[in-house]
Amino acid sequence: MTKTFRAIAFVMSVALLSSAPAGMSARQAAAELYTCSMHPNVVDAKPGQCPVCSMTLKARAMTPAEKEIVDFFRAYDAAFVAKDMEKLATMYAAETTVYEGGGINRGWKDYRDNHLGPEMKGFENLEFSHANVVPHLFGTDGAYVTADYAIKAKTGERVTDGGGLATYTLAKDAGGWKIRHTHTSAKRRATGGGPNQDRGGR
Ligand SMILES: [Zn+2]
After folding, report:
1. Do the bridges between strand 176-186 and strand 92-100 make them parallel or antiparallel, or are there none, so unpaired?
2. Measured in angstroms, how far is the CA atom of residue 57 from the centroid of ligand 1?
3. pTM
């Protein structure tokens, strides 16, 4: 093998190793977060400008714990799309609280039996994903996570096509990270979508 060929082969293998899994944004797969050197509280999952001082955000590698949390949400999205309630059950603490669209579910069983479970049964053609997942760690076993979410589904004649912002509070125990609390807010639409249109609260 010539030196040049070896170099090309090496570059190609690195490119293959670092290519994003299907459905993931390449940026998030790069395992980097973007912060402002002047405003350390500004953290984003994608390149851009600081909203406070307009400086270009600097990339930094995720810590192992941050990477774990981003992977947690990748697994969450896969379980959600697969309607895998058993897997989802392992991702919520028993005492979880879910705030959504002005309503509250208290505990995983309440959320499962009175909210998520019935919703999942009705969903057809379900698409669901988180993006811009930014973990904010408190020590080694606590974190809050901000993210965007998008959802598309049909439930009978009703069409859900929306998304919005989500905040998750996570706590880590022997079984890994678990959702202790979550609060989602669906995006406002400029025009009403009609009686069968849902903004994607979930
Ligand atoms: Zn700044």
Report:
1. parallel
2. 8
3. 0.79
